[in-house]
Specification:
The protein has 100 residues and is of the alpha+beta class. The chain is built from two helices and six strands; from the N terminus they run H-E-H-E-E-E-E-E. It has helices at 3-9, 25-33, and strands at residues 15-18, 37-40, 52-53, 59-63, 66-79, 82-91. The radius of gyration is 14 Å and the shape is globular. It starts with a helix and ends in a 9-residue tail after the last strand.
Length: 100
């Protein structure tokens, strides 16, 4: 419902962050075709194909025909109710450099 409208709004150089329910071949491919960079969370049990390994510990994979480097990371969320730490797998159409 909202995905087609989102895709029409994307432009080259933009970054879109997607939750795990959007980690499907059709939306990722359509978003990547706009020139936008896609960073998506995948479900913890999802096995993405390993197409190669990178020296930084990440690996190369694909969502459909879209090549993606995959970053495994541990994220801690702190709120007034406390801390929660989880392991996340994040494929991205382009690695986003850390801020300087």
């Amino acid at each position: 419902m909202y995905t087609p409208r989102l895709i029409r709004s994307l432009r080259e150089g933009m970054t879109v962050l997607l939750d795990r329910n959007f980690a499907a071949q059709t939306p990722v491919t359509a978003m990547a075709k706009t020139g936008a960079h896609v960073l998506v969370r995948v479900k913890s049990g999802r096995r993405l194909p390993v197409l190669g390994h990178c020296s930084d510990g990440s690996h190369l994979s694909a969502i459909g025909a879209v090549p993606v480097p995959v970053i495994d990371c541990e994220i801690t969320i702190t709120t007034a109710a406390g801390h929660r730490t989880g392991l996340y797998r994040r494929p991205a159409t382009k690695l986003i450099p850390p801020p300087s």
